[in-house]
Amino acid sequence: MATDVVPTESPTNTSPAPPAPRERTAEQIITAARTAPPSSLFAWGLSLVFGLLLWASFPPLDVGPLGFLALVPLLMLVRTEQRPWWTYPASYVGGLLGYLALFQWMRLGDPTMYVAWVAVSVYVAAYVPLFVWLCRTAVLRYRVPLVLAAPVLWTGLEFLRSHLLTGCPWYLLGHTSYRWLELLQIADVTGALGVTFLVVLSSALLASLVPSGVYAALRLVPADVDAGFAVRTPSPTASWIAVGATIAVFAATLTYGFVRRSQATWTKEDAKPGPRVALVQGNFPASVGAYSPQQVTAIKRTHWRLMGLAMKHATTTGERPDLFVWPEAMFPYPPVLEVDPNVTDERLAELTPDVPAEWWRQADARFELERFAAQSNAAVVVGVNAYVAEPDKVANFNSAAFVHPSTGYAGRYDKMHRVPFGEYVPLKDELPFLASFTPYGFGFGIEEGDRPWAFEYGEWRIAPVICFESTVPGLVRRVVRETEKDGRPVDLLVTLSNDGWFHGSAGLDQHLVTSAFRCVETRTPMACAVNTGISAFIDGDGAIVEPDLFLDADGKGRKTSTDATTGRWHRQLNALVQHEVPLDGRTSLYVRYGDWFGIACLASVLFAVMAALVPRRKTAVA
């Protein structure tokens, strides 16, 4: 009998089924992307590219358009959601290398200046990671558009370093655009920082448009993380708004620049003729220590010979100079000596036992300067050493003396902005060891001048500044404001400088470029007489103009201020540079209202610092 087979059910699996995966929220995905460690190699590379672009934007390479790209590598790091520790040291190292290359000319003056060179570079580079930190906080945490956060924060930090610790207003990003004259004109409203704002705005726009896929290709985000979540990317609408706003800002700025430059034409036509100024440029490299008697004689003879070339040229052309300008410290001896009326001869003997009292009364320096002016039949501004005997001390000043051809010595201007460790040692009484950072020793130092000064000659009023004072925006503004007379500002700024310390380096170029911004800010032309060069004239638009006359006193046949092959300004030569200065009758909002723009940006920086210190709300990661 057949057996029936009864089908049975398959055994049941008693193990529980795996749970369905939960979908993570966008916030959780972003948080996970932040915590995933990306490769640091390319981020270090971007920081080094930033340093390279920074250096290349300024002299000696002087490729100004690179300034509009310089911050793009740093701002790419700002957009990444990850918070790797190496972002800040990488950006600092990139900035440090760039600034070390830019400030390298500082070391040429004396071996002790290597310390100052490194110290300045270390200090200025510290602003770079601070900028990255604040920018990342604004963009990633508070959703501020990159095209707004970056220019405001960088400009505010440049304003801060231009004033903190006596200020370092060198190598502002806006200085890279000194050739784009229409863009520069906004400086008479905002100061040079307005140009910086525009340069950084360009970098911010370009960086915001970099696709997230580029980050993945550069391994700036982990391979297993969606770059779309790991990089802050604006929406298409926000990108178009950023592009349109940037174009509008540039269009408005350039329109303003064209209008202001056109106003200069009819203003100069209606103005009285400007003075014909002759800049007397010797070639005497500077070094630590007093000049020997032979050197003093050679310096004065050379400058007097150069004045003679100008007078000889005038006999054939009729272009007689109205004013001669000698550079800083080119009349080293005898010094200009002055005695307070309350100081007796007995007190002089106590103050200066090695200097007879009658020497203070002889005024030898004045007589010699008056002879220069009388024989040239022109006014003379000369860089001198001045000593003033006061009841309690003898004060030493770095000064510019003015001499009238008919009435003689008319007074002097004393330098107000001293160079730390070059002209004085800050806190040397409280911290005596700081004197070791200057080659001059503990007892070295000049006194600070107390006010600007304007000299009058004919129909013109002339205000001097000395050396690096021409790079300090607030000081030049003060000179123009406080020397105003009867509602009329000075006609001409003259800079007396001894750049022979820097041996023809790029520091000479940058000194001149930075001075050009002072002319736009104040709408006042400037004549720069510089030992070893670069002596030049700058008009009220900030244009460094070709002079009417360039006489090469070294017999090498140079007829213009620049080399025809390289385009670089001539330097390290004896020369006579002469030009009829075009006066400028335009007014300046910057002179009236000062650094309102920089202060507003600095306020944003301080607000950003406080916002960054607010504790972050913790988010759980799935």
Structural class: alpha/beta
Provide the low-confidence segments as ranges. 1-10
Number of helices: 21
- Report the helical percentage: 40-55%
Average of pLDDT: 88
CATH architecture of the largest domain: 4-Layer Sandwich
| Rg over C-alpha atoms, rounded to the nearest angstrom | 31 Å
Distance between the termini: 66 Å
CATH topology of the largest domain: Nitrilase/N-carbamoyl-D-aminoacid amidohydrolase
Q: Which term fits the overall shape?
A: elongated
Describe the protein in words.
- The chain is α/β, with parallel strands linked by helices.
- The chain folds into two domains: 255 residues, no CATH class; 279 residues, Nitrilase/N-carbamoyl-D-aminoacid amidohydrolase.
- It contains 21 helices and 14 strands.
- The strands form two sheets. Strands 1, 2, 3, 4, 5, 6, 13 and 14 form an eight-stranded mixed sheet that branches. Strands 7-8-9-10-11-12 form a six-stranded mixed sheet, with helices on one face.
- A hairpin with a 2-residue loop joins strand 7 and strand 8.
- The radius of gyration is 31 Å and the shape is elongated.
- The N terminus is likely disordered.
List the helices and strands and how they pair.
Layout: H1 26-35, H2 41-57, H3 72-78, H4 87-102, H5 113-125, H6 127-141, H7 146-161, H8 181-184, H9 187-190, H10 193-208, H11 212-217, H12 227-230, H13 236-270, E1 276-281, H14 293-317, E2 323-325, E3 331-339, H15 345-351, H16 357-362, H17 364-376, E4 379-389, E5 394-404, E6 408-414, E7 455-457, E8 460-466, H18 473-482, E9 492-498, H19 506-522, E10 526-531, E11 536-538, E12 544-545, E13 549-552, E14 575-580, H20 589-593, H21 596-612
Parallel strand pairs: 1-2, 2-4, 3-4, 8-9, 9-10
Antiparallel strand pairs: 1-14, 4-5, 5-6, 7-8, 10-11, 11-12, 13-14
Helix pairs in contact: 2-3, 2-4, 3-6, 3-10, 4-5, 4-6, 6-7, 6-21, 7-10, 7-21, 10-13, 18-19
